[in-house]
Amino acid sequence: MEAARDRLVPDVVAGGLRVLFCGINPGLMTAATGHHFARPGNRFWPVLLLSGFTPRLLKPMEQRELLSHRLGITNVVARATARADELSTEEYREGGRLLAQKVTLLKPRWLAVVGVTAYRAAYDDRKATVGPQERVIGNTRVWVLPNPSGLNAHWTATTMAEEFARLRAAATDPED
Asked: Which residues of the chain register pLDDT less than 70?
């Protein structure tokens, strides 16, 4: 796994997304496999199913299928680390700046940052909480979701899925 440290993992993106999910940064398992949210204890993929974003449980290696649901994945910070606390304040802020550029280019309906701590650090918004934010990037609204890491014991898969479902409802166009 250590060989994967500092590797970059390609985004799963396209224009016209309903939601662009944004992780903190790739973990070593993600970097080693090249698939987002690949660590076995990560609840991202099960929560997408439970919340109704996907019709079946996708595996990390099926991440490109998200595009058919007009969903994508990127990260605040591109480089892989074993733990998010290895990232510096400067990396978060630069990541926030680059993320805003990416969102401006891709124009998703919603940017969903998975992890309130990452959002606070990237945008210097110490008061941010889980849920929709006042911040808008171009025409893209911003929603902060709970971090799906298995280490985030404050949120169960069920309570996470409820929050993801709130975003799904907001991101669903009646014509979709």
From this structure: 1, 150, 174-176
Question: Catalytic one among 25, 42, 75, 147?
Answer: 25
Statement: the pTM of the whole predicted model exceeds 0.85: yes
Active site residue 25: yes
Do the beta carbons of residue 140 and residue 103 sit within 8 Å? yes
How far apart (Å, rounded) are the C-alpha atoms in residues 101 and 136? Answer: 12
Nearby residues of 155 by Cβ (< 8 Å), 6 or more positions away: 146, 147, 163
pLDDT in tens, 47-74: 999 999 999 999 999 999 999 999 999 9
Residues in the chain: 176
> How much is the pLDDT for 62?
97
The catalytic residue among 35, 36, 75, 147 is: 36
The first and second tokens of residue 155, run together, are: 């949120």
Q: What's the one-letter identity of residue 72?
A: G
